[in-house]
UniProtKB/TrEMBL annotation:
Gene3D superfamilies: Zn peptidases. Its cofactor is Zn(2+). It comes from human gut metagenome. This is Peptidase T.
Length: 91
């Protein structure tokens, strides 16, 4: 039971495979892309050592730790980012 709506929303149901009364589960996903954007995401991998992350020095585009405090969870990791001029869709 899968339905694709005209605005690209997909819904589906899966019947239970047991006679027991059990909780219902729902899964959601989304796409972070747009047809208006170019196909080139300008993606690159940057090491994250804390603080603000410069995505594009020419355009002065930064991923600021003050705006995204969850970045602190990724200190010491490599991050896959754009240069700030395109979308990078991933889930």
């Amino acid at each position: 039971d899968i339905i694709l709506r005209e605005n690209a929303i997909v819904t589906a149901t899966l019947p239970a495979n047991t006679d027991e009364t059990i909780p219902v589960v729902s899964f959601f996903g989304h796409l972070d892309t747009s047809a208006e954007q170019t196909a080139d995401t300008n993606a690159h991998r940057l090491p994250y050592n804390g603080g603000d992350l410069c995505l594009n020095p020419e355009l002065n585009i930064y991923l600021r730790e003050s705006e995204f405090p969850e970045l602190k969870n990724y200190i010491g990791d490599d991050l896959i980012v754009t240069d700030g001029t395109s979308l990078l869709g991933a889930d």
